[in-house]
Amino acid sequence: MEEPFVKTEIRKNENIVYKCTDHLVDRPLSYCPGCGHGVVHRMLMETLEEMNIQDKTIGVGPVGCSVLAYDFMNIDMLGAAHGRAPALATAIKRLWPDKFVFTYQGDGDLAAIGTAETIHACNRGENFTIIFINNGIYGMTGGQMAPTTLPGMRSSTSPYGRDVLTMGHPLKITELIANLPGVYYVTRQAVHTPNHVRKTKKAIRKAMELQKENKGIAFVEVVSNCNSGWKMTPVQSNKWMEENMFPFYPLGDIKVDGKLIEKKQVIEKESLLSGKSLKRGLAG
């Protein structure tokens, strides 16, 4: 029996405008509705399909919201201890130098407990790709303040906003590692609009392709939302991200072909020191 309001005659191969890559496993994602993780998963897996390297790729998953990435990516995956993905990726790449290796990490995993592993792998110039999802908060464990939480931004452990005098400044780890000699390519992108999705996919493709040249670390940061942790709707969180995250974490290339890109970044002193001019996350 034909389904109501569905014209089965249009279900033909020549009419298909989009089909999910078979590099993604056909199962529901565990992420909150509106989260950027699913989009990045798709961009990454589409890239591997287009490069025809599914059987040549090994991914390393983190601890965090994307700890179950191996359930969704139809490739060889390994799970690392919290923050240790770069160390595991180092071992994999050195044992199998012809494999394409990447880590997929959030800001708590990469920029907090994994800071040492991240910095030393980058400084050594290991030949693998790091995909870094930055939503400015610990998403999986209850919305706690992360190293990337903005000044003045509320979280479950900074309910009155991050006070840099007592809680320290946000860690701009992407700019930090960009200055290391072992890092060849660094970029910061987003996935909240179609245009940004295309730019992110292009960046991921470049980061994976560079492994053929053995130039060192290729690092792709994706600034994303966390509507659940920020206590907002997906639409509200994307708007908040544009107004607050992007000025502090500006999008674009930071290091290309081993050379830093000169950029002028203006951040209000009041925002940096007290955060009062920012529109806060965690409504209420």
Describe the structure.
- The protein has 284 residues and is of the alpha/beta class.
- It has a single domain, classed as Rossmann fold.
- The protein is 33% helix and 15% strand.
- The chain contains ten helices and eight strands.
- It has an eight-stranded mixed β-sheet with strand order 2-1-3-4-6-5-7-8, sandwiched between helices.
- Strand 5, helix 7 and strand 6 form a beta-alpha-beta unit.
- Helix 1 packs across helix 7 and helix 3 crosses helix 4.
- The chain is globular, with a radius of gyration of 19 Å.
- It starts with 36 loop residues before the first helix and ends in an 11-residue tail after the last helix.
- About 5% of the residues have low confidence.
What is the structure about, briefly put?
The chain has 284 residues and is of the alpha/beta class.
Features:
284 residues, alpha/beta, Rossmann fold, eight-stranded mixed sheet
